[in-house]
Amino acid sequence: MLWKNLKSKTWIDWIKVVIAVDIAGVGIGLILNFEDTLHVFANIFGFVSHIIFGILYIFVAVLIFKRVFPQDLAQEEKDEALRTNDDIFETTNSVKKAAQKIIKKVDHLSKETYHKIDGILDKSEDFFDKRKQEVKDEVGKIME
After folding, report:
1. Shortest CA distance to 47 belongs to which of 59, 60, 30?
2. Residue where a domain stops, chosen among 70, 101, 128
3. pLDDT tens per residue, the chain (144 residues)?
4. At which of 70, 93, 128 does a domain end?
5. How far apart, in whole angstroms, are the C-alpha atoms of residue 64 and residue 121?
6. What is the pTM of this model?
7. Domain that holds residue 107
8. Claim to verify: residue 1 and residue 42 sit in the same structural domain
9. What is the DSSP letter of 69?
């Protein structure tokens, strides 16, 4: 599987591999306190900074290797991302369903309110129609 991956790498990937190997070698050299390594910051605090910078270089090399040669560990990260996406999807669906329920309730209440107001207006129209007729009758009586 590794040999198949090696064939598919581009020239920039090969440069990254060479740099990663160099960084890992320098990191191991710093941890083992080889004096042949040339660094600006790694020599500031003696062997303590050698160990710290050596560990950092190894971490960087591992990150570069993971980037150039993705492995099954990336599948775990992908699975976690998919679970997160599913959680987001479920949350979005539940919010959507709640919003739909609220919209249906508001629609139902607005229809009920419309019918109540319409009923009140019909009653007031009937009331004023009756009063209008009574007023006409009274005005007619007075005019006679």
Report:
1. 30
2. 70
3. 566 777 777 777 776 776 677 777 777 777 887 776 655 556 667 777 778 777 877 877 877 777 777 665 566 777 777 888 788 888 888 888 888 999 999 999 999 999 999 989 888 888 887 777 777 888 787 877
4. 70
5. 77
6. 0.36
7. 85-144
8. yes
9. S
